[in-house]
Design goal:
Belongs to the peptidase C40 family. It is a single chain. By secondary structure, the chain is α+β, with helices and mostly antiparallel strands. The strands form eight sheets. A six-stranded antiparallel sheet has the order 17-25-18-19-20-23. A five-stranded antiparallel sheet has the order 8-7-6-3-9. The chain has three domains: 173 residues, endopeptidase fold (from Nostoc punctiforme) (Alpha-Beta Complex), CATH 3.90.1720.10; 141 residues, no CATH class; 79 residues, Roll (SH3 type barrels), CATH 2.30.30.
Length: 436
């Protein structure tokens, strides 16, 4: 936005305004307690260890049909051509619902690379408009290396798996999952010591002879076991680990089974030996690492969307959030301030003025993170597709922001021309509900 000056695009600018930038919001025990509440109270979070085994047919079918719903409105391919009814029928057939066994043993796997989660078992895209191909309506989310899944079903051609992850159920390409034993899969995220990706764009070192672990993207918050016992004189894929950390990554063997493989992460990479301390300064600093990144609906384009943005920022502190904005906004496990249609503008503005850095502001379909106040306005950082705002001369400006941006909250307008503030459904705060 034209009204945001260069200083406001610097994390140091906002950190300098904090009275106690390094004050812990939650310590490690507090974060563990918060995550335990999330897993116990939030219905959008799935405990893979407690899924029914074997899986009843009705249980599996219900979850597939809740996701893989044929659209009621017309959809278009990437060339602007309407998707024919036959294509949609083929998508339905690919679900192979009639092949779900009355009972099937539960299988587990680890994701081996950043992988899309899809509405249907297909890589084909679908768009609501023949002219706008930014938002693929078949794209749901993404999973990252080391994420655990439970396999619930397979597509008709066997190339896709319907999986449950901790935060989402959807279709994933079978080639992106290595199947393994329950203990190995569920224990991967608990292994110590470990390294945590704390940067926006971390990659493993190039390994020319082993493409499965070469230049592998590691999203913010990804946790990998550290091979602290690796002999320093022993090369890893042709490179001595004298200036790198040796981590262990899951890979697939020729039959799709889980194997462990060492990989190097350069010591210069933005990683840490533990999750970062949850402080206001670190929250702002982590969010600004994504500044200017392209918006990616459902983690498309190798980037992320608004809810993915805030959840990955918090993931770098070890804090668990639901995947989608609706679930985040409604979560009973957070310190939630809810708004009803009857709540007036004055009450909403009072809540806005009381926002603290790191607080999450929700309007239908969007989330923004508060970073501070300046010149009588509340500033936020958010990952947004299109935007409208009230310009200094009172006119309405509109633009495809299409990325992670810093804006004042108060001038932002929803599609009906009303302020975001008047559309707020909730403010969520990541701290114990009893905290002041």
């Amino acid at each position: 936005m034209a009204s945001v000056d260069a200083d406001a695009l610097s994390p140091e600018h906002w950190i300098a305004k904090l009275a106690e930038p390094d004050r812990p919001i939650l310590d490690r025990a507090g974060i563990q307690a918060q995550n335990a509440r999330m897993r116990a109270l939030d219905p959008s979070i799935h405990d893979l260890a407690t899924l029914p085994d074997p899986l009843p047919r009705a249980w599996v079918r219900e979850r597939i049909e809740a996701l893989s719903v044929l659209p009621a409105n017309p959809l278009y391919d990437g060339h602007g051509t309407p998707l024919p009814p036959r294509s949609l029928r083929m998508l339905r057939r690919a679900l192979a619902l009639e092949a779900i066994a009355p009972e099937r043993p539960l299988h587990y796997g680890l994701v081996v690379r950043r992988a899309d989660l899809r509405t249907f078992p297909t890589r084909a895209s679908a768009f609501s408009s023949p002219r706008d191909t930014d938002i693929d309506r078949f794209q749901e989310s993404a999973l990252f290396p080391g994420d655990a899944v439970a396999v619930l079903h397979e597509s008709r051609d066997g190339r896709w798996l319907f999986v449950a992850s901790e935060r989402y159920l959807a279709w994933i390409a079978a080639a992106d999952v290595a199947l393994g034993g329950r203990d190995a899969v569920l224990g991967y995220a608990r292994r110590t010591p470990y390294r945590v990706a704390t940067g926006a764009h971390v990659r493993t070192a190039i390994a020319p002879g082993e493409p499965r672990v070469s230049a592998l993207p590691l999203e913010m918050g990804v946790r990998l076991p550290l091979r602290a016992d690796w002999p320093p004189e022993q090369p890893v894929h042709g490179q001595l680990p004298v200036a790198a950390h040796v981590v262990e990554l899951p890979v697939r063997d020729a039959e799709g089974r889980l194997q462990a493989m060492p990989a190097l992460v350069p010591r210069a990479a933005d990683m840490a030996g533990d999750y970062l301390p949850l402080t206001p300064a670190h929250l702002i600093g982590q969010a600004f690492k994504f500044l200017g990144e392209r918006y990616g609906w459902g983690h498309a384009h190798g980037t992320r969307d608004c809810s993915g943005f805030v959840s990955e920022v918090y993931r770098s502190f070890g804090v668990l959030l639901p995947r989608n904005t609706g679930d985040q906004a409604a979560s009973p496990a957070l310190d939630r301030i809810a708004f009803a249609p009857r709540d007036g503008h004055a009450a909403r503005m009072a809540a806005v003025r009381a926002l603290r850095p790191g607080d999450l502001v929700y309007i239908p379909g969007h989330v923004l993170m508060a970073i501070g106040r300046q010149d009588g306005m509340t500033y936020v950082i958010h990952d947004i597709h299109g935007g409208r705002w009230r310009a200094a001369d009172g006119t309405v400006a509109e633009g495809r922001l299409n990325g992670v941006v810093v804006t004042p909250l108060e001038p932002m307008l929803a599609g009906d021309g009303r302020p975001y503030v008047d559309h707020m459904v909730a403010i969520q705060r990541i701290r114990p509900a009893a905290a002041p």
